Amino acid sequence: MIKNIAVIPGDGIGEEVIAQTVRVLDAVGEKFGHKFNYTYLEAGGCAIDSTGKPLPEATLETCKKSDSVLLGAVGGPKWDHIPGIRPEQALLGLRGGLGLFANLRPAIMYDQLKEACPLKESIIDGGLDIMIVRELTGGIYFGKSGRSEDGQSGYDVEEYSFYEIERLLRQAAEIAMKRNKHVTVVDKANILETSRMWRECAAKVFAEYPDIKVDFLYVDNASMQLVRNPRQFDVIATSNIFGDILSDEASQITGSIGMLPSASLGEGSFGMYEPVHGSAPDIAGKNIANPLATILSGAMMLRYSFGMQAEADDIEAAVGKALDAGYRTADIAGGTTPIGTKEMGDAVIKYL
Ligand code: NAD
Predict the structure, then answer these.
(1) Ligand 1 centre from 104 Cα, in Å?
(2) d(CA 279, CA 7)
């Protein structure tokens, strides 16, 4: 298979972690007989420097013509004080411009890193692998908001259409079919009308997926269950605000921010893949950043945009083996001697 990937390294450690991810993708491509073509593009602070805009039109247009987008991270103190412009505007522009409405945040706890997990061993015994599918472009973050004339009261409106809910739940169902076929819809249907719409919609969508087990949890209960018994979850499907909060809660269960990948999907198979972390200006350019979050984002790209399940499994297994063998970057080293960004790339490639 030949695939065209738009690559946006961005700022700070973005370039370093992307470089290792491209090496890993090439190695897996060689092993399985695929050719990945990369077009390198600018967005974020570096684009402000060269074009005056965080998201040049040429970047967005090239992304639209590609099969998927791989992004490092954007931002940094250099661009913090430009009036009206921020590097992070590139992210909103990409999500909106590419029609990305489903955000996927896996919370995977590697057994090798379980000492970084704040939960009791009896709770996480056997490992953790949860996928949170969050609606990204609707709900209260995009609803009407404002203040009364005297400024003494304010409002933010949660609004969803059946169309927005249905396409999110369909993505969640498709993802669950590639995993353990269990979806938990998280809402607040005892109080919110939009949540009752999520339940109505779920009844319709999941009727078409008889193999999937579906259950429903109120968000307050879900946040409790995530720390009491996280192993009960496979895929969690939820609204923008609930997903924002729950995905941060789930990420803490897993240890380092340097290990967390993410994906944002639109209609069909197109997606943008990026680590959860930012540009980490404090460690940029020193070959000490952990590239695994971005490498694992690359694995998600193979699975969700290219349908390359075995190839994605292979990358994830190689990451597990590199950790098994004791390879650790500084953020996850504990008391051990850390290796560098490039050396972690070497270790993953060695175990592919
Ligand atoms: P950050 O995620 O960049 O860094 C937080 C801490 O985690 C830092 O101590 C950093 O060194 C460490 N860290 C992050 N990634 C790491 C990795 N791969 N390996 C080892 N350690 C890692 O968050 P921040 O410091 O709040 O933000 C820095 C810049 O990044 C800001 O300009 C912010 O706006 C931007 N940002 C961008 C994105 C994005 O591009 N998606 C996301 C978050 C923050």
Answers:
(1) 19
(2) 15
